[in-house]
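ARCHIVE RECORD
Type: protein–small molecule complex
Small molecule: zinc ion
Source of inputs: curated submission
Record status: active
Notes field left blank by submitter.
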Amino acid sequence: MKFGAHTSIAGGVFNALKRGASIGCEVIQLFVKNNMQWFSRRYSRAEINKYFENSKKYKFFSIFGHTGYLINIAAPDCDTREKSIRSLQLEIELADSISLPFLVLHPGAHLGQGEEKGIQQAVNALNVVFKSTKNSRVKIAIECTAGQGTCLGYKLEHIAEIFFGVDDAKRLAVCLDTAHLFQAGYDITAPQGWENVIKKLDDHVGINNLLAIHLNDSKTPFGSRVDRHSGIGKGKMGLKTFKHIVNDPRLNELPGCLETPKSPDLQEDIENLKILRSLVDKRT
Ligand SMILES: [Zn+2]
Ligand SMILES: [Zn+2]
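STRUCTURE (tokenized, with ligand):
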């Protein structure tokens, strides 16, 4: 596994690379724009140039994006849904302009319509977005969730239904978040539990569609359906969980990205990266 962290784009998207490199990231995840706003301007030519200068300089194994938090593609027909579709289209354009391979996206919240209808809305929204961005190579990696409130994605079956529903499934991928799996009721703290998740994912959508792992411990108990992250080994999942995950040979060439609490000096990221790397078996 290649380790890294979600990194801030404060001061410009190109700054995320510098920050990530300064704490020893091999991979980074970033927001392509302010994650709490619907829309933004496109990047200037100067910003794009600086971005590619930095990507050449720092040579990350992978840089990918996470979509903004306002987007809800499962929403009923309303203003939120319209904005979600346009916002996602814009984020794909932004990601394309800096050659990101994929954007991580939560499947959304059905807001009382029921899960089946919510999944249908998500599928339809993705069909609209993929059609309008059909020349883009940016994929959408659906992330499993804790299942807080009416959020979809706390069952791997939800992700499978989205894969089978969309017209162009080649634009889709998957991101697994360790804390979300645990909070959703998948006990991955023992090797067999992790094995069951990987097997289920492989049976439903194919392991080759797994493009990223979010490495987070959980502040909330098993099956809580409440999404709170904590530092590696500092939550309810514990170090033992991460031991078998970081040593899973099927994930050797995948990004494992922290989304854990941190202060402005990024000391916690440095510490968590050190812990993760210490768990990797040293083979001679
Ligand atoms: Zn996420
Ligand atoms: Zn995550």
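CURATOR ANNOTATION: Residues 2-21+31-279 form a domain with the TIM Barrel fold (CATH 3.20.20.150).
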